[in-house]
């Protein structure tokens, strides 16, 4: 017998994973500890 994949379960699993990725991305963007620091030191010679 042929077994067909359960597309409803696959769709729900994909939506859950997508939701977790979106929530994680928003957490990283909105977390103040993960922000870049734009402080430049006076002796910064890394620019060309």
Automatic annotation (TrEMBL):
Its main location: membrane. GO terms for cellular component: membrane. It is a single-pass membrane protein. The keyword DNA-binding does not apply. GO terms for molecular function: ion channel regulator activity. It is found in: Membrane. GO terms for biological process: monoatomic ion transport; regulation of monoatomic ion transport. Keywords: Ion transport, Membrane, Transmembrane, Transmembrane helix, Transport. The chain crosses the membrane at residues 12-30. Belongs to the FXYD family. This is FXYD domain-containing ion transport regulator. The lineage of its organism: Eukaryota, Metazoa, Chordata, Craniata, Vertebrata.
């Amino acid at each position: 017998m042929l077994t067909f994949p359960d597309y409803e379960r696959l769709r729900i699993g994909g939506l859950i994973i997508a939701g977790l990725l979106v929530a994680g991305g928003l957490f990283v963007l909105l977390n103040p500890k993960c922000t870049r620091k734009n402080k430049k030191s006076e002796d910064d010679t890394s620019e060309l």
